[in-house]
Amino acid sequence: MGGGHEDAETIRYTSDVVAVTDDGHVLLIERDWPPYEGQWALPGGHVDPGETSRAAAARELAEETGVQVDPANLTALGLWDAPGRDPRGRYVTAAYLAHIPADTTIVAGDDARTARWWPLQDLPELAFDHAEILAALPSRPQ
Questions:
Q1: Are β-strands 40-41 and 25-31 bridged in parallel, bridged antiparallel, or unpaired?
Q2: Domains, the chain, ordered by start
Q3: Cα separation, 76 vs 97, whole angstroms
């Protein structure tokens, strides 16, 4: 039953934000660094020491897109922890949903080359397993 730690792996903790508008758009960033440099992804990043994943989600959203949200207004979507989901090693991410007004201004910053609103029905190819995270969105009445 494998009680030893000789094959323990380093696990990194991140959080991602699915920021959506009532008119059916999601906020994505174009990554400025490997892995997946130049590809589109959800805003997100590492959870800092002493920080909750919810606080990290709000911080990363602000750093990468300029969009400010109260962490209390983020809804947990779930955890994604499949081995191999990140080529840099073992990463576990907590994903959060944020409802953002459709006219919100975005300003790319930090790890984002650009940021833009994409129609949920017409998304680009996404980095990591972010398409799976988006697939977990609760369906909304039309």
A1: antiparallel
A2: 11-135 (3.90.79.10)
A3: 6
